[in-house]
Amino acid sequence: MEENKITEAIIGAAIEVHRQLGPDLFESTHQACTAFELTQRQWEVERQKVLPVVYKGIRLDEGYRIDLLVARKVVVEIKSVNAFLPVHEAQLLTYLKLTGLRVGLLINFNVPKLVDGVKRLING
pLDDT, tens digit, for every residue of 35-58? Predict the structure, then answer.
């Protein structure tokens, strides 16, 4: 499955960012650096991708923003929190449903070892 290769690359890039910067920065910093790392590894990355909501047949671009969309296949939501909450999973699942994509990653940089801050979610 192509998504497995993509998620492996994303996790590897995030681990490199965590090694270089540590856990104590803003989400936006981790997001920018992870996007840079993925781009350096030749992956297509879209940052802060607008995810519109269609309401009564009208497209509203004020809906949501995906932190990272990698290779047009995997949604990445980056956090810097003490622990994942149900709302974080719900947010990612909403993005997956609205995009029709299958795989997403929640990545929490506020952990001693990044592998402990990664959660993969599947739509449907």
Answer: 999 999 999 999 999 988 888 999
Q: Which letter, b or e, does each residue of 50-68 get, where b requires 16 or more Cβ atoms within 10 Å of its Cβ?
A: eeeeeeeeeeeeeeeebbb
Q: Domains for the chain: give ranges and CATH numbers.
A: 2-122 (3.40.1350)
Query: How far is 50 from 40, CA to CA, in rounded Å?
Result: 23
* Cβ atoms of residues 68 and 34 within 8 Å: yes
Q: Tell me the per-residue pLDDT of 1-24, one tens digit each, with 9 for 90 and over.
A: 699 999 999 999 999 999 999 998
Provide mean pLDDT across the span 89-94. Answer: 96
Q: What is the dihedral of CA 51, 121, 67, 15, to 10 degrees?
A: -160
